[in-house]
Amino acid sequence: MTEPRPRRMPHHRLFPWIVGALLVVVGWLVLDEQMRPTSPADVAREETVERQPDYFIEDFHSISLNESGEPAWELRGPRMLHFTDEDLWTIQSPDMLYHVERGEPWRLVSDSGRAWSGLTEAVLEGEVLVSREAGEENDWAELETTEAWLFPQERLVQTQQPATYRTRGAVVDGVGARGALAINRINLLSEVKSRYAPESD
């Protein structure tokens, strides 16, 4: 009597088992590779590349003239670096003077600054103070903030940071400010709170 042959599993049923086994093996290998401790040789160390300026200026005083040949604005500082790849100036302790048609000029100082496009656009950073001394045609005024964007040709200054504006008898706090210095106007933009502040003799 002939013994029956063992039944073979059909190919269409065997294939899912093979795929499942391969997935288990591959998953184990990947997990084992991820759990393996990393040696110092496996870690790619990024070297810090310090940018080098193409030139610098120390103890500088730059004056921009208007169409009439009179000073429009002036910029002073102890050191200014230029990076040609970005057409970027970095300025240490910038001290800027905006001349206006009526009254005393506006002075802008900060801890540091950056400028682009031939000093037609700049930003002051750190402790920023925009101020004006009292004169025959104007009261004293000052604006304090932590960052201010400048457009020297238009004599425009603006910030989106919290700011405080002070003038004779008033202190105004707010978020965001815009100063059209050519017409001697500074406006705080939002969350504005003002209080009376009498001046002491």
Please tell me about this protein's structure.
This protein has 201 residues and is mostly beta strands. It has a single domain (55-197), classed as Sandwich (lipopolysaccharide transport protein A fold). It has one helix spanning 11-35, and strands spanning 55-65, 71-83, 88-92, 95-98, 106-109, 112-116, 121-132, 141-151, 156-167, 169-180, 185-197. Strands 2-3-6-7-5-4 form a six-stranded antiparallel β-barrel. Strand 1 and strand 2 (71-83) form a beta hairpin. The protein is globular, with a radius of gyration of 33 Å.
Radius of gyration: 33 Å
Count of separate structural domains: 1
Q: What best-fitting shape do the alpha-carbon axes yield? A: globular
Give the strand line-up of the largest sheet. 2-3-6-7-5-4
Q: What is the second-level CATH architecture?
A: Sandwich
Quaternary form: single chain
Q: How can the largest sheet be summarized?
A: 6 strands, antiparallel, barrel
Mean pLDDT: 81
CATH fold assignment = lipopolysaccharide transport protein A fold
CATH top level is Mainly Beta
Structural class: mainly beta
Beta-strand percentage range: over 45%
Number of helices: 1
What is the H/E order? HEEEEEEEEEEE
C-alpha termini separation: 128 Å
